[in-house]
């Protein structure tokens, strides 16, 4: 339950405030997570580093992690936070290689946005866990939500709003990603992300209800392995799941059209161009 969490301790470990002391902590944390020392954090480095900040005690190598928040796995929150923090800031330089690295990773400026988003998604993950009680492998149905309306009402979600989100009473249909987007849109309309820009702090409004956000979320869902690109196999799997009439050959033709630079993968820029056609 979110009420059992020591949020002051969470906020102490995730320095998000716009003050020099907190920025200095972000500097130290970024350099600690940047294991390759290249000025960028990959999704793998974020998956390893962010949960570690919230571990409850020192553990031996063979022991499973335990956290100061009652969550067994924080990676879903990390993945969503990483997805919204990437490319918040413009590339710091020119050239194709610089842009590709920037599009796949979080730089030092965006690390602030990553921490802010991670903090928000942790809270939503806890609520999602409280609601998801039927063992449906991470999907909510209406009956579960109906029992937890007070939790949803804190996010400006009414009973009528919630019921319209489900096809029937019992079918598990809402993933954590969809749930988080829904809650953010209803409560804030936008997720306010913070950016460290040299010595100045800059606030960026992330439009949670915009078409850009919807495209980003679609890209994340199709990017099954969280690599930052969509492979031919991932595209084929999604298309054939959405429409059983699709063949692998059909999917390969679409993939060839979308893979503009012919590197064997569809990046976010190519995905946007393809969807817009």
UniProtKB/TrEMBL annotation:
Q: What PANTHER family is this protein classified in? A: CALCIUM BINDING PROTEIN
Repressor as UniProt keyword: no
* Keyword tags: Calcium, Repeat
Q: Which GO terms describe its molecular function?
A: calcium ion binding
Q: Which organism is it from?
A: Alexandrium catenella (Red tide dinoflagellate)
Report the residue ranges that make up the EF-hand domain in this protein: 21-56, 210-245, 246-277
Cross-referenced Gene3D superfamilies: EF-hand
One short Pfam family name for this protein?
EF-hand_7
Q: Which SUPFAM superfamilies match?
A: EF-hand
Name this protein carries in UniProt? EF-hand domain-containing protein
Q: Which InterPro entries match?
A: Centrin_CML-like, EF-hand-dom_pair, EF_Hand_1_Ca_BS, EF_hand_dom
């Amino acid at each position: 339950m979110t009420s059992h969490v020591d949020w002051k301790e969470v906020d102490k470990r995730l320095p998000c405030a716009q003050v020099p002391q907190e920025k200095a902590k972000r500097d130290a944390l970024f350099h600690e997570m940047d294991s390759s020392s290249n000025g960028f954090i990959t999704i793998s480095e974020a998956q390893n580093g962010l949960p570690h900040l919230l571990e409850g005690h020192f553990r031996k190598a063979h022991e499973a992690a335990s956290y100061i928040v009652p969550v067994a796995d924080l990676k879903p929150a990390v993945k969503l936070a990483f997805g919204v923090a990437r490319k918040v800031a413009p590339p710091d330089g020119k050239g194709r290689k610089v842009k590709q690295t920037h599009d796949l990773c979080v730089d030092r400026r965006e690390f602030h946005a990553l921490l802010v988003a991670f903090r928000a998604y942790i809270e939503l993950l806890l609520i999602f866990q409280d609601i998801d009680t039927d063992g449906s492998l991470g999907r909510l149905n209406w009956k579960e939500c109906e029992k937890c309306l007070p939790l949803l009402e804190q996010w400006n979600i009414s009973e009528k709003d919630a019921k319209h989100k489900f096809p029937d009473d019992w079918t598990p249909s809402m993933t954590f990603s969809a749930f988080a987007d829904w809650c953010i849109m209803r409560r804030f309309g936008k997720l306010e992300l913070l950016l460290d820009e040299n010595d100045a702090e800059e606030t960026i409004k992330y439009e949670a209800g915009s078409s850009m956000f919807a495209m980003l979320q679609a890209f994340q869902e199709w990017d099954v392995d969280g690599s930052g690109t969509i492979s031919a196999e991932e595209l084929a799997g999604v298309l054939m799941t959405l429409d059983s009439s699709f063949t692998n050959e059909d999917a390969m033709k679409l993939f060839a059209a979308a893979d503009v630079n012919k590197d064997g993968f569809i990046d976010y820029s190519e995905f946007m161009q393809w969807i817009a056609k």
